[in-house]
Amino acid sequence: MFFWLIKTTPDWVLPIVTANVINMISDPPPDMGRQLAFYAVISAIVVFQHTPSQVLFFHFFSRANRSVEMSLRSSLCQRLQHLSIQFHKNSKMGILQTKILRDAENIQGITCNLLEGIPFGVITIAISVIITANRAPKFLLFFLVMVPVVVTINKLTIGKIR
Fold it and tell me: pTM (2 decimals)?
């Protein structure tokens, strides 16, 4: 999770830097050059650290994921060995093996989706609320009204879209 947090910093730091630069250009401060240089350095650091942290994240994630997948496949094989000879005689082993492989891949896919989706959503919402509360506290009321409206519209239309 540490490397995931570091690798996703461009997603939440760059919009803040961009907003600050736009505000600075629309209302130039006396030390605009120094502030622009500061934001350029911050942006460069955030962008250039992305690739190494992405590599480290996937290294540790793949290692953990392969370990879980190996344990799952090993457990499934042990369970298959406990089944009776009659079961193995009557069932098609190719179909059973395909099902085991597919189930292990599905669990891997679920793990990837959960690890990428849930923390990213939580962090994005938290940062959005914190920045909005800091810069325009009255706009939080808009969030409080619009989020339930959007969720309701989504629930009502998703069935028809499917």
Answer: 0.65
